[in-house]
Specification:
Layout: H1 2-9, H2 12-20, H3 49-58, H4 67-78, H5 81-90, H6 105-112, E1 116-119, E2 127-131, E3 138-143, E4 147-148, E5 157-163, E6 167-172, E7 180-185, E8 191-198, E9 201-208, E10 212-215, E11 225-230, E12 237-242, E13 255-261, E14 265-268, E15 278-283, E16 290-296, E17 302-309, E18 313-316, E19 326-331, E20 337-342, E21 345-350, E22 354-357, E23 367-372, E24 379-384, E25 393-399, E26 403-406, H7 407-413, E27 421-429, E28 435-442, E29 450-455
Parallel strand pairs: 4-6
Antiparallel strand pairs: 1-29, 2-3, 3-5, 5-6, 7-8, 8-9, 9-10, 11-12, 12-13, 13-14, 15-16, 16-17, 17-18, 19-20, 20-21, 21-22, 23-24, 24-25, 25-26, 27-28, 28-29
């Protein structure tokens, strides 16, 4: 009867959703058992895409004699260790430090995906700048640690990488410069970009384990450049440089957003309507969309968030109602979602809807979005919290379903935030949206900047 009903009235998707309600029954239950365990309600979208595809491929509809039999077969699929190994690899979940042969990837992933809050103690009083796409590496500027590449003075504030396995590693400086800072990394963590002093100037750099730190130069022999972001494949770098062909003054009128490749070198992206300056802040994973800000010559050099593509050049994203300026700081993987700030409000921009405000944190007065996940669904930044005296800055997390939330309050609800912690900013988010990092301090201290890393699974996968 079930076979008949299935082929006449149920699509496979509805059948799959039906079976999902028996998720708790499928593991370790004899199909002839008369015991009815509590049913765990779940929805199909909670399962990883790889699992869904595997289920579609593995369950032969015409051989399914009963729901119980299907649950048993599904249970075998869901307990396939190789399936979860593939999922771990595709999801770019950091398995560093795990045994080379893992007997239960499902259990390991479940443990790794538990919500957590961690203070990175070796980065106390450091400047946090970014996170690698897979969430395993943090970047920024810190006092050089015990492992130093290229310099002898370990007290210099230099570009660093930090991972849970290797700890803090300094990347050194250019030509014995006095400081450096790392900003972003490629998808496989092999290429890091940032800026470093180089004699009396500051230069954008590209760092690899093989070549160490290399200067990217400047536009038309200008005396300064800085790199801000890099494409997933590590081949395209963006940032800003003083253009040596443009008269320079201290207002920054010679700054130009740039796009750098090994073959083409540093390419100026110009400005909006011959505006005074521009800056690139981010690049999509596929390298096709660059975002940042530019003075708009048609708007009395007011700042505008910009989107640049090879086909359309530099375009203004406009401003929010009542605002005079805007700037873009983050972009998702394919360039379809851009985040930043306009006036006193954080915004999200899409091709379909244009620029929309993310709102305020408990009716606070100010906010700015710094980061967005690869799919564009998770946004992080900083906002004044209107629910607290003096409107303190608080790190926020935004999703379309829940709107703007205080990350601090969210972690407190889950009993994950240690006493006296105050989280002031989400600086960066991993591509999958599950790892956030930022800065904060202790309410009992004198204000020393502390770096934290939070894991917040977006949905229950198990």
């Amino acid at each position: 009867m079930f076979r008949s009903l299935f082929f006449t009235s149920l699509s496979f998707v509805s059948f799959l959703a039906l079976s999902t309600t028996h998720l708790s029954a499928m593991e370790g239950q004899n199909e002839d058992s008369t015991t009815s365990p509590p049913i765990h309600q779940a929805t199909i979208e909670f399962l990883p895409e790889e699992v869904l595809l595997h289920i579609f491929a593995s369950i032969n509809q015409r051989d399914v004699p009963s729901v119980a039999g299907t649950c048993k077969q599904w249970g075998q699929v869901m307990n396939d260790n190789q399936l979860w190994k593939v999922y771990a690899q595709r999801a770019q979940i950091d398995l560093n430090g795990s045994p080379s042969e893992v007997n239960d990837y499902k259990a390991l992933l479940k443990d790794l995906c538990k919500p957590s809050f961690t203070q990175i103690k070796s980065l106390e009083d450091s400047s946090l700048r970014g996170i690698s796409p897979d969430g395993s590496m943090l970047l920024g500027q810190a006092k050089a640690g015990p492992r130093v590449y290229g310099i002898k003075d370990k007290r210099r504030e230099t570009a660093f990488t930090w991972t849970s396995t290797d700890g803090l590693i300094s990347l050194g400086v250019l030509n014995n410069g006095s400081f450096s800072s790392s900003e972003a990394a490629s998808a496989n963590n092999s290429v890091v970009v940032g800026n470093s002093s180089d004699g009396n100037a500051q230069k954008a750099f590209r760092w690899t384990q093989t070549d160490r730190m290399e200067s990217l130069g400047t536009i038309n022999n200008g005396h300064m450049s800085e790199a801000e972001d890099i494409s997933a494949d590590g081949l395209v770098i963006v940032g800003s440089s003083i253009d040596g062909a443009v008269p320079y003054d201290r207002s920054g009128s010679a700054y130009r957003a740039f796009r750098w490749t090994k073959e083409g070198g540093m390419e100026s992206l110009s400005t909006l309507n011959n505006g005074s300056h521009s800056k690139a802040e981010g690049i999509s994973s596929d390298s096709l969309v660059i975002v940042g800000l530019s003075a708009d010559g048609a708007e009395h050099n007011q700042l505008r968030a910009i989107r640049w593509t090879r086909e359309d050049g530099m375009e203004s994203l406009g401003v929010l109602p009542g605002a005079n300026s805007s700037a873009a700081y983050g972009v998702n993987s394919d360039g379809s979602v851009i985040v930043g700030g306009s006036g006193n409000e954080p915004f999200v921009w899409t091709l379909e809807s244009g620029m929309k405000s993310l709102g305020a944190l408990n009716n606070g007065k100010y906010g700015i979005a710094h980061a967005v996940s690869g799919d564009g669904l998770v946004v992080g930044g900083s906002a004044n919290d209107g629910a607290q005296k003096d409107y303190p800055r608080r790190a926020f997390l935004w999703t379309a379903r829940k709107g703007m939330q205080s990350l601090e309050a969210l972690l407190m609800e889950k009993n994950l935030l240690p006493p006296h912690w105050r989280l002031s900013d989400v600086v960066a988010i991993s591509s999958d949206g599950t790892v956030l990092t930022g800065i904060g301090h202790l309410s009992t201290s004198t204000g020393t900047s502390l770096v934290w890393r939070v894991v917040l699974p977006r949905a229950t996968l198990f």
